[in-house]
């Protein structure tokens, strides 16, 4: 599960979405929304740097998609 409000998107993404009238779902499928690399790491133990928590790993139910986006982008109006 990825939380859309966990980071501020670079302005180009909101411009593309607004001018192109693109839905959140299409933006999520097509663009990286400013996240260059994502890693799944354990929350236990020392981290070499401060990670940005953008979501959690959860067991999905039968018909749920593998990746779910929740919330609204922090730059959304």
* Structural class label: mainly alpha
Specify the number of helices: 2
Low-confidence stretches: none
Q: Roughly how much helix do the residues carry, as a percent range?
A: 10-25%
| Averaged pLDDT | 85
The count of strands amounts to 2
- What portion of residues belong to β-strands? 5-15%
Largest sheet: 2 strands, parallel
Helix-strand pattern, N to C? EHHE
Any idea what the radius of gyration is? Answer: 14 Å
What does this structure look like?
The chain has 77 residues and is mainly alpha-helical. 22% of the residues lie in helices and 5% in strands. Strands 1-2 form a two-stranded parallel sheet.
Chain-wise SSE layout:
Layout: E1 2-3, H1 11-20, H2 24-30, E2 69-70
Parallel strand pairs: 1-2
Compact summary:
The chain is mostly helical and 77 residues long. The protein is built from 2 helices and 2 strands. 22% of the residues lie in helices and 5% in strands.
List keywords for this structure.
2 strands; 77 residues; mainly alpha; single chain
């Amino acid at each position: 599960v990825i939380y859309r409000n966990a980071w501020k998107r670079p302005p180009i993404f909101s411009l593309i979405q607004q001018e192109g009238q693109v839905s959140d779902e299409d933006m999520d499928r097509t663009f990286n929304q400013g996240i260059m690399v994502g890693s799944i790491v354990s929350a236990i133990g020392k981290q070499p740097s401060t990670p940005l928590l953008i979501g959690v790993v959860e067991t999905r139910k039968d018909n749920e998609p593998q990746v779910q986006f929740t919330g609204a982008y922090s730059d959304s109006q």
